[in-house]
Amino acid sequence: VYNNSPGSSTLNAPLTSDLTEEKRKQLCGLLGNVELSLLYKASVHGYQASAFHQRCDRQGPTLLVAYNRSGYIFGGYTSVDYTQSGQYITDEGIFLFSFQGKIPVCIKVNSGYNARIDDAGVPNFGQQLYFCYNNQPVVYNSGSSAFSLNTATMYGNDTQLSECEVYKVEQSSAVSTEEKPWRNVLWTAERKDKLMEMVRNHKPLMTSVSRVRILMIGPVGAGKSSFFNSINSIFMGRMTSKAMSGSAGTSLTTQFRTYPVKDGREGKPLPFVLCDTMGLEEQTGAGLDIEDISSILQGHVPDRYKFNPMVPFQPDEQKASRPASLQEKIHCVVYVIDATKISLMSDKLQEKLASIRRKVNSLGIAQIVLMTKVDEACPLVEKDLQSLYVSSYIKSKVQEVSSRLGVPVSCVLPVKNYSQELELELNCDVLLLTALQQMLHFADDYLDDVCSMEDKPK
Ligand SMILES: Nc1nc2c(ncn2[C@@H]2O[C@H](COP(=O)(O)OP(=O)(O)OP(=O)(O)O)[C@@H](O)[C@H]2O)c(=O)[nH]1
Ligand SMILES: [Mg+2]
């Protein structure tokens, strides 16, 4: 219960949030391991800038949530205090959001623009979107280009607000740390060398298979291509970016690519191949298709095949009639999932993943979940990767992804891919190599299984 002293009796009444529990969770999911507490509610405190500042100044990071009469819920987050300094604010964390369907979609500030001006006026984002404009229940778009926003999708072009709330965003104290790490990792150079040595010397269980084929599947932008780049970088001893990675609305990767990795520039090929696919999208007819996955699993799809979401892969008839050799098939499937998006996963996407799992299960292929972007998900981990296995938040995310995908917790491997670094970093390498080693082990289990089936008298 809030005690909003000093003020009239209405101001002392506990504030109730208009956010549903689900939406609150989704918004928290965008911000990491945080708690929201309501500071200001325009219908109670008034739409005047002064009322806003009285409650929201010097409160640290805040999230503004506006509701309009057409039912849109939208707003923005800023990580920098309001102080009425009159200064332009740079804030890399700032974003606007709007619920589209059930999912909050974010828009980041365009580079080269100020995040906002910190004056005595009403809250603004990029001096473009003003909430409580003219001290009225109104949202106003000045037309500046700080944010590439579409007012029709963001708020249905309905500028009349029915409510405007501002929440204080705090790192959740519940996210405390575990007493003991829940997995043991040796963060040492010796360990890294040992892992690299084990990967180099790995011999797939069957002699007919010279290289383990690992398939990466996951939503758009989850970090599939980045994982290959990261592993390749480790063995090349420098940053590489052979696979195109980045962010776009739809999948950046549009071809099926099978990437061998060499042990250094002049080195021998390593005993595995990472297979990169186009991202999954929730709609049917968009992104990677289940039929395509099925063809890939069975080794029918050639390197550089260009995916067409409208038409699944059609193997030529000769090839389709004979089963591919074990070497060409997939031996381990890796579901690549962005740690920051787990709570935001839509039912449709979850259902798509479930049907892929059923397919992979039916073929008996080994499966692992690679949980990427642990650095973005938890500030503790961003500061120090070694705190990964003491972060309760990461632990909860691992449990969540495990239950959403229906895989055991032991099969979920959190990693941080290389994204903007220029140099390799030991802790990162240890995690990435541990994940790779696990994939090789799982593939071995699969091959062992195939082996024992072949040995059986018919
Ligand atoms: N901070 C951080 N960023 C990451 C990580 N992994 C990937 N990224 C970034 O996320 C963005 C998307 O990564 P990609 O590797 O292109 O994702 P993808 O799964 O290949 O995406 P599509 O090919 O579009 O389906 C890039 O900007 C990466 O730099 C990570 O572990 N941490
Ligand atoms: Mg990609």
Automatic annotation (TrEMBL):
Organism of this sequence: Sinocyclocheilus anshuiensis
Q: Which SMART domains did the record assign?
A: TLDc
List, for all copies, the residue spans of the domain called TLDc: 9-170
GO BP: any one term: immune response
Q: Which family does it belong to?
A: Belongs to the IFI44 family.
* Source lineage: Eukaryota, Metazoa, Chordata, Craniata, Vertebrata
**Single Gene Ontology MF annotation:** GTP binding
What is the official name of this protein in its record?
Answer: Interferon-induced protein 44-like
Against PANTHER family, the record matches this protein to: INTERFERON-INDUCED PROTEIN 44, INTERFERON-INDUCED PROTEIN 44-LIKE ISOFORM X1-RELATED
InterPro entries recorded: GTP-bd (IPR006073), P-loop_NTPase (IPR027417), TLDc_dom (IPR006571)
